[in-house]
Write a structure and sequence with these properties.
With about 400 residues, the protein is of the alpha+beta class. It has 7 helices and 28 strands. The protein has 4 domains: about 160 residues, Molybdenum Cofactor Biosythetic Enzyme, Chain A (3-Layer(aba) Sandwich), CATH 3.40.980.10; about 50 residues, Molybdopterin biosynthesis moea protein, domain 2; about 90 residues, Molybdopterin biosynthesis moea protein, domain 3 (Molybdopterin biosynthesis moeA protein, domain 3), CATH 2.170.190; about 70 residues, MoeA, C-terminal, domain IV (Beta-clip), CATH 2.40.340. Strands 7-4-6-5-9-8 form a 6-stranded mixed sheet, with no helix packed on it. A 6-stranded mixed sheet has the order 16-13-17-21-20-18, sandwiched between helices. Strands 19, 22, 24, 25, 26 and 28 form a 6-stranded mixed sheet that branches. Bound molecules: adenosine monophosphate (AMP) and magnesium ion.
Length: about 400
Amino acid sequence: MLTPSEAEALIAGRLVCLPIESLPLAQCVGAVLRENVYAERDAPPFDRVAMDGIACASGALRAGRREFRVQGMQAAGDPPLSLAATTQCIEVMTGAMLPAGCDLVVPVERLTMGHGSARVDAGARVDPWTHVHRRGSDSREGALLVAAGARLEAPEIAIAASAGMARVRVSGQPRIAVISTGNELIEPGEPIEPYQVRRSNAYGVIAALRARAFQRVVDDHLPDDAATLGERLGFHLDTQDVLILSGGVSMGRLDLVPQALAQIGVEQVFHRIAQRPGKPMWFGTTHAGRVVFALPGNPVSTLVCLARYVLPALSAAMGSLPCVPERVPLAADVDVDTELATFLPVHVAPDDSGRAWAHPRPTNGSGDFTSLAGTHGFVELSGGPRNFARGHVTQLFRW
Ligand code: AMP
Ligand code: MG
């Protein structure tokens, strides 16, 4: 059987990078940038007044002048005035362009304003360019501000806007179908019999996709019936890029998903991974480049396989730069009594020194997803039998 990292490599080898689309900037929150963002102009684009006060020629102050006649006022957004004489000053507001002929801003806190004049206090700083945010001191026109592959969060969106970009080129959203299977499953809100089960997996899967800014997500539910499975899965393969199924991949007589997928031409890449939970996971692709993740139906297995394999694969297909794995120490000893790689749900909390620790929150088997409330994800522990001592550092996967 494959190890988790072998399964991950097989998935990575079958993924195609999604096409690029150009979108209005405001619609790109969470998207992966597929072009570089370069500075449209120097930043700041001009010598920028950094304090409310007056602008004047510093040489006059160093030569002993303290009192200046106020020639005019310049606010942010005004075209620049020009200082007519070094005996004069110009009242300026933060964000204004420094008036021509001035090389110093004295803040209001250091001024005594009279009728048409300003007196500079003895303690004021008079070196040239004091309280002036010099043109180009943050970045130069043409400088690379955000590289392709970055995820567009609030700072990157603001930077792209500052670079004058009304639209940006980002990875197209994959069309994803989230499909649960199982005759026993009942939608929340519908009446339920004692022998039936709530259809919760699809809600968890869709929540994780939405939290990562995937928007083109459709939802379907299929019974454990070979003909219906074949027909509906065929339809979804024609209309979607990625299928995420749950249920129907174990050894039971009604676990019909692998054979239904094979019959409609999905090529199996692997079935089963040496892991707990989630051993029956199935993965396949089509000639047209569609990918099918068929996750085991047990709710803990579904969420674990989603976070361990599906979400990182989708992120790579979007052209995201690989993120640095998050590694955390175990906050308690853990016994792994199986030869299978083990995914252990954890709550992550910092100690007094600020170091994050993974506090194990084992579930009562792969069906017990009520124990997952308040957990942040899970850690991966290699197969045993083995005791992992408190402090053992391992990789964290977030939900
Ligand atoms: P399966 O993988 O189809 O054998 O399902 C394993 C277990 O997970 C069964 O007890 C199912 O009732 C349960 N299960 C399957 N799909 C879901 C779902 N979408 N939501 C909640 N439980 C599920
Ligand atoms: Mg089932």
